[in-house]
Design brief:
Chain lengths: 167, 423
């Protein structure tokens, strides 16, 4: 897995799914449409100023609220390479893994990384580094089962394979 | 050493003697739910798996409730996709408007979620069925797709936080006030990854409608489930509704829990959550006088018959304030009919409320009561995040039906006692 490198956009605690993708846009599940409104109610100009490969750094309980998978889908489709937070709400955490949006839990990185800085992320090792040559932080590693899910490209691939094995 | 209800429910579904917090298990799913926002995504993912059939057409519920009656062409297309999938796969529990209801009111009412079940729903308020003693939790669309194919799903066994409400409920205080108080105390992530278990004399004395309200909002404290042990009240509710056999599973008294809170409620005031968090909770008297543009009584939290009765008792012979728009939305068609028969709808109409067919509608800022910039609403719903009911510059307060009905009459956030004794 190659290392990710991107510019940091910071958000606070308890960023909810209504802020990530407001319900008024949920009459579609088209990723390109969702991407246009990513984080709109937290920062209306967000989708127009970010570049592909950028990184979101947030506080605790990122993605709380509804179960809409449109939230991680919007973030992924907007080109965000990875979300680093102090902690994630559980349904968002599940959804991100299931659809293959990289997420890392690191209270230290969440507190220290600054808006506008570049960061480098090694997903395999769970290592986050501020650039150029800044501090490095460790993320909470995934349990082996989830690593397997991620390695297989998400839950649907995992289930497809399981179904094939049982036939 | 004993086990909590959450552990015993998951152990049963995973076919294990016992399970422990933190353990990953594969559990058989008794019922899986999707709605018109989440099911279309799940159906697309399901089609990628390459299976011919769903695991069991009787154990999947697809409920178009969020944007129905279809609010626009795109919403209509989403429901059409669901409808065609439901017909193709012979999904038994698919309901159109005129028969449907808001999913979390409808499924218990129809007796298709039952005590002892493990239920997943691609909707965060699936935790509502915890009030029946089911392990019920919200997941995403991909999880729903995998479940529709396999009939099982992975779970991490959660630790339990026990909440004990002691004492008698004061008048005009109900399930909504207890759960708002809980969220205010724990915070929006205070129960993250945990199961909440509610008990104590106030819960034992409470009817099912109040219990559903409590379990419904467990997610607002970040919880995975909001459980209440089944008792005679649960059995009486389930009797005559259950579509299949079920098993009552309770926790052991000596089960270790992560934390326990005991709260005396005799002197509790009705509670209100102020913008922009369901944890920003205050006794109603502290917010008294806040001017309102709209009041909504409905949703999977407080759109049941007891809620409508409570609101009607206050609205009877009164009128909604001339500056306020009151929307009353019975949560299911059966509740609508019951309210009609009991004369509640007439009371609402005479009070100059707008009455709607069941829908989520304004609860998520979907349709039927969207707020303009700067407008303020009080709703019996469950979330008041920025933009939840419309413009990001609007504001939503959350409360129970008694405060909502009173405030609709006075035009400002008010304690039900302001209008004098209600019988
Ligand atoms: S009523 Fe509101 S909270 Fe309940 S399912 Fe509908 S949108 Fe969700």
């Amino acid at each position: 897995m190659p290392k990710l490198k991107g510019k940091i956009w910071r958000f606070g605690d308890d960023i909810d799914t209504d802020a990530i993708i407001p319900a008024r846009y949920l009459n579609t599940s088209d990723p390109a449409e969702l991407a246009k409104h990513c984080m709109e109610d937290a920062d209306p100009s967000f989708s127009s100023k970010l570049s592909s490969g950028d990184i979101i750094v947030a506080g605790k309980n990122f993605g709380c609220g509804s179960s809409r998978e449109h939230a991680p889908l919007a973030i992924k489709a907007a080109g965000i390479a990875c979300v680093i937070a102090e902690s994630f709400a559980r349904i968002f955490y599940r959804n991100a893994i299931n659809i293959g949006l990289p997420i890392l839990e690191s209270p230290e990185a969440s507190q220290s990384l600054k808006e506008g800085e570049q960061a480098e992320v090694d997903l395999e090792k769970g290592e986050i580094r501020a650039l150029p040559g800044g501090e490095s932080y460790n993320a909470v590693p995934f349990p082996p089962f989830m690593q397997e899910l991620i390695a297989m490209g998400g839950l649907i691939n995992y289930v497809r394979q399981k179904k094939q094995e049982s036939n | 050493m004993g086990h909590t209800m959450a552990e015993k429910l998951l152990a049963r579904a995973a076919g294990k003697e016992e399970v422990f917090p933190g353990e990953l298990v594969n559990a058989k799913i008794d019922m899986a739910l999707g709605n018109d926002i989440t099911a279309p995504v799940a159906i697309k993912e399901f089609n990628k798996i390459g299976v011919e059939k769903v695991f069991d057409p009787e154990r999947i519920a697809l409920i178009p409730d969020h944007f129905t009656p279809n609010k626009d062409i795109m919403a209509a297309e989403q429901v059409k996709l669901m409808r065609e999938f439901a017909r193709k796969h012979g999904i038994v529990h698919y309901y159109e408007i005129g028969r449907m209801g808001v999913e979390h009111a409808l499924l218990p009412e129809l007796g298709i979620v039952l005590p002892g079940d493990v239920v997943i729903g691609a909707d965060s308020h699936t935790c509502t069925y915890g009030a029946l003693g089911a392990f019920a939790t919200g997941v995403g669309s991909t999880d729903l797709a995998a479940t529709m194919a396999m009939g099982e799903l992975w779970f991490k066994v959660p630790p339990t936080i026990r909440i004990v409400f002691e004492g008698e409920l004061p008048s005009m205080v109900g399930g909504k006030d207890l759960i708002l108080y809980t969220i205010g105390q724990l915070g929006v992530d205070g129960a993250r990854y945990c199961a909440l278990e509610f008990c104590g004399s106030a819960i034992s004395a409470m009817g099912m409608d109040g219990r559903f309200t409590i379990s419904n909002m467990a997610i607002e404290a970040g919880a995975k489930a909001g459980l209440i042990a089944p008792d005679e009240i649960t059995e009486a509710y389930v009797k005559g509704r259950a579509r299949r056999s079920y098993q009552v599973i309770k926790g052991d008294d000596d089960a270790p829990v992560m934390a326990e809170y005991r709260w005396q409620i005799e002197n509790m005031e009705p509670q209100v959550a102020a913008p922009f968090s369901p944890a920003n909770v205050h006794p109603v008297s502290q917010l008294k006088g806040t001017v309102l543009d709209q009041v909504v009584i409905g949703s999977c939290t407080n759109g049941r018959i007891d809620d409508l009765r409570e609101a009607a008792a206050i609205l009877k012979g009164r009128r909604v304030h001339s500056h306020v728009r009151l929307l009353v939305i019975p949560a299911t068609q059966a509740i609508y009919k019951q309210a009609l028969q009991e004369g509640l709808l007439e009371i609402f109409a005479e009070a100059e409320a707008a009455i709607s067919t069941p829908t989520c509608g304004p609860c998520l800022g979907g349709h039927m009561g969207i707020l303009a910039e700067g407008e303020v609403a009080l709703a019996t719903t469950n979330r008041n995040f920025v933009g939840r009911m419309g413009h990001p510059g609007s504001r939503v307060y959350l409360a129970g039906p008694a405060v909502a009905a009173t405030s609709a009459v006075t035009g400002t956030i008010s304690h039900p006692a302001e209008l004098g004794e209600v019988n």
